[in-house]
Design brief:
The complex is a heterodimer. Chain A is of the alpha/beta class. Chain A has 7 helices and 6 strands. Chain B has 4 domains: 223 residues, Rossmann fold; 112 residues, Rossmann fold, CATH 3.40.50.920; 179 residues, Thiamin diphosphate (ThDP)-binding fold, Pyr/PP domains (Rossmann fold, 3-Layer(aba) Sandwich); 61 residues, Alpha-Beta Plaits. The chains are: A alpha/beta, B alpha/beta.
Chain lengths: 194, 609
């Protein structure tokens, strides 16, 4: 077994924590794991790709072009930006809720058409699922857990990590306090997608 | 400790911190810089979590000071670790050169984190060359586990050889999370070992310097033998690959994936400098051809070609100089695959998508500062493009993006002040502005300011004082009262420091008060002499972590959709939806800037319960 997961999102959406949670869960499940990330520039609000690779034998943190088994997109423009990494073997789960860029906010550019963005991925992958992860997470208690709602959606399609191990990993990465709410949202989301 | 022998999912930098504590490191210091900062942060975390007793774990004012503190501590007998990003090594380089001549008593490891890509660094510097220049050994891990192991081994090796060692890493090791087996933390007992020995420590007498130069060359000749365990030779095939660091992983993965392990011999170097000559000779003699796969410069490639020539070996050596791997940007499995099996770079189809550079955070005090600087320039009777704004390293470099497009330069730590002074030195009678953050000012801005005052180069220095090293994750500055490790600090006041230097006009302003901030900029631009404006307001992220008391809301009936607020401020909490402005409540920190610029008083304060 080997899974190459690419998480695409905007800095601050929880992509990095999600990659860490998956890595911790994978190591706790006895796999080898590697993560890496590609940041736009500073910390918040820029494009961020996070890579997680886990399985019996993984070494480097990067995924090669066309090499993603899974694309978790926290935002449609950022998911579209991952087009080089997906292929006909890829399973994509994307939140279609747009986050405007600084050019949109300052009135210099219009945000692209969301359907067109999703199409970039759709025509390249095996299957594309959209899920309003942010809205669901907000409804369940915190928009910050949109990342875990996406993960829950994916794990309902491919049960590659057990939900208990993921919950342990959530606590390890986020700490007791934040982990409490986040793991509950994860659990609720799993139920919702069953 | 409860983690002994356990496999943890650790980031390379976290693994280095675990390794340092397992090696009994007693002094840890450095200056924050991506991708190196998490080493000290993890040390602070581990100190608290496991109640580890360590004499000194603190951030330094800059990398040079950090290295000198580490050197002094290591000469006194304490194992020391100093951390920095690649440009930090340039700052620390002066004392590092001399350190090769005096050597060390206890282990002294200098982490230098390079950033192929680059992802978060001004240059794609390959710090391996420092090994040759400084005459210091360089070792390089390829994974988080090796980052851990090489930290321990490097500390021992430094002590065995008597030289500081550079632990060179790249982003794909520092920031990669992997499974790492950790051991037990160790506290080292040590005695005061610094002795009066002027020929070793005083660089003022030239014959001693020649003697020490000879000494360090002899020391370097011992390294290969002592560091044998750092290198790995895999396979017996006729096709050779020489590699190091993160690139090693890509090499092994693509060879395995293709199922051609039998055809290849891979030499992975953990010891980078001095090059392990005996091992290389044996390897080069055993293969017919060699591809050198490494990040950034063709560093090993040049050495290997040189050695092959020196030994008159009939082996073909290929790498970046033949164009089969790129020198610009980082490597990945795809590029290594092409280099090994197809030997030509393929251009992948490009789709053009809108860029998403990071904006300033909602409520960032720098938004107020840049609004005021640009307004102040106009108020003083100038056009925006008439007055150069010299930027510096920190979050405020984001002012390069809309709506401000403010800074003309972002060069190197502290350069804003001295480059701004350079305009005046060249004799131009136009105002010259430097913008610099508080930590960057402490790090390297002070000498430039002293020189400007001393030489009468009348610049305006705008210090963006958000009270922290924000961009790298909110590390302490010399203005803190308590450090991350719990040490009571004597806070240094920027205002008093600036006044003591003799700056002609000093003002402290609140960047959340746009009117007075703008007026002060306009006023100071017209004055002769060196002027300093300190814009003081805590980083927005720290404010929001402490809790927000009020937010702002748009009254839809009053909002005329003029978009003045978004176009002037670019605050990410202001969201234009179908031409109408809304404020994302969970993002707003209540800075009031949008309410101040709204021409229709359509934005109002709402107290949070």
């Amino acid at each position: 077994m080997k899974k190459n997961v690419l998480i695409a999102g905007v800095g601050g959406q929880g992509g990095l924590s999600l990659s860490r949670i998956i890595a911790v869960a994978a190591v706790r499940s006895g796999y080898r794991a590697r993560t890496g990330e590609t940041l736009g520039m500073a910390q918040r609000g820029g494009s961020v790709f996070s890579y997680v690779r886990f399985g019996e034998d993984v070494m480097g943190p990067l995924i090669e072009e066309g090499g993603a088994d899974v694309l978790l997109g926290l935002e449609p423009l950022e998911a579209a930006r991952a087009y080089k990494y997906v292929s006909e073997k890829t399973l994509a789960v994307i939140d279609p809720t747009p986050r405007p860029t600084i050019f949109n906010i300052s009135g210099k550019e219009e945000y692209p058409n969301v359907e067109e963005l999703l199409d970039i991925i759709k025509k390249r992958v095996k299957e594309l699922y959209t899920v309003k992860a942010r809205d669901i997470a907000k409804e369940l208690g915190s928009a910050r857990s949109a990342n875990l709602v996406l993960l829950a959606r994916y794990l309902r399609i491919e049960q590659v990590l057990s939900s208990n191990v993921v919950k342990e990993a959530i606590f390890e990465v986020l700490g007791e306090k934040k982990g409490e709410l986040a793991s509950r949202i994860f659990e609720e989301a799993l139920k919702r997608f069953s | 400790m409860q983690t002994v022998g356990k496999k943890l999912a650790l980031m390379g930098n976290e693994a280095i911190a675990y390794g340092a504590l397992e090696a009994g490191t007693s002094v840890v210091t450095g200056y924050p810089g991506t991708p190196s900062s998490e080493v000290l942060e993890t040390i602070f975390y581990l100190i608290k979590r496991y109640n580890v007793k360590i004499p000194y774990a603190e951030w330094s004012i800059n990398e040079r000071v950090a290295f000198e503190v580490g050197l002094g501590a290591a000469l006194a007998g304490a194992r020391s670790l100093v951390t920095m990003k690649a440009p930090g090594a340039n700052v620390a380089s002066d004392p590092m050169f001399s350190a090769a001549y005096c050597g060390t008593n206890a282990g002294l490891l200098v982490l230098v984190a390079d950033d192929p890509g680059p992802h978060t660094t001004q240059t794609e510097q390959d710090s391996r060359w420092y090994g040759d220049l400084m005459k210091l050994p360089v070792i390089e891990p390829s994974s988080p586990q090796e980052a851990h192991d090489f930290t321990i081994r490097g500390m021992e090796l430094s002590e065995e050889i008597g030289l500081p060692i550079i632990l060179r890493t790249t982003t794909r090791v520092n920031h990669a999370v992997g499974d790492v087996e950790v051991g037990e933390f160790k506290t080292m007992e040590y005695e005061f070992s610094f002795k009066y020995e002027p020929s070793r420590f005083v660089r003022a007498f030239m014959p001693w310097n020649r003697g020490r130069h000879k000494w360090v060359l002899e020391k370097l000749s011992e390294v290969e033998d002592k560091a044998k365990d750092l290198n790995q030779w895999i396979g017996t095939g006729e096709k050779g690959v020489i590699t190091a660091g993160a690139a090693y992983n890509y090499v092994m993965e693509v060879i395995k994936e293709r199922g051609v392990e039998d055809e290849y011999s891979v030499l992975k170097l953990g010891l980078i400098h001095p090059p392990p000559r005996n091992l290389l000779k044996e390897f080069l003699s055993s293969v017919k051809e060699v591809t050198v796969v490494e990040e950034i410069d063709p560093y090993l490639e040049e050495k290997v070609k040189f050695l092959a020539h020196e030994w008159r070996l009939n082996v073909e050596v290929r790498g970046k100089q033949e164009g089969i791997l790129r020198e610009v940007g980082e490597l990945d499995p795809g590029s290594v695959k092409r280099a090994l099996f197809e030997r030509e770079a393929i251009e992948v189809e490009e789709i053009s998508l809108p860029r998403r550079p990071p904006p300033m955070c909602p409520g960032c005090p720098h938004i107020g500062s840049f609004y005021s600087i640009l307004r102040g320039i106009r108020k003083a009777g100038y056009k925006k493009d008439q007055i150069p704004i010299f930027g510096d390293i920190g979050c405020y470099a984001l002012s390069l993006n809309p709506p401000f497009e403010a800074i003309w330069t972002e060069h190197s730590m502290g350069a804003s002040i001295s480059m701004a002074a350079g305009i005046k030195a060249a004799g131009f009678d136009i105002p010259s502005i430097a913008v610099i953050g508080d930590s960057t000012f402490f790090h390297a801005g002070i000498p430039g300011l002293i020189d400007a005052v001393n030489k009468g180069l009348d610049i305006l220095v705008f210090i963006l004082d958000n009270g922290t090293v924000a961009m790298t994750g909110h590390q302490s500055t010399p203005a803190y009262e308590i450090s991350e490790s719990g040490r009571r600090l004597k806070p240094i006041s920027i205002e008093e420091l600036v006044k003591a230097v003799g700056v002609d006009h000093v003002a402290v302003v609140d960047p959340y008060d746009l009117k007075s901030c703008t007026e002060k900029v306009a006023e100071f631009l017209k004055l002769k002499g060196v002027k300093v404006i300190i814009a003081k307001r805590e980083c927005a992220i720290l404010q929001s972590r402490r809790g927000i008391e009020k937010v702002y809301r748009v009254i839809p009936e009053k909002c005329t959709n003029c978009l003045v607020c978004t176009k002037l401020l670019g605050c990410p909490a202001l969201l234009p939806v179908d031409g109408k402005i809304t404020i994302i409540e969970e993002e707003c920190i209540g800075c009031s800037l949008c309410a101040q610029v709204c021409p229709y008083n359509a934005i109002v304060e709402v107290r949070k319960k």
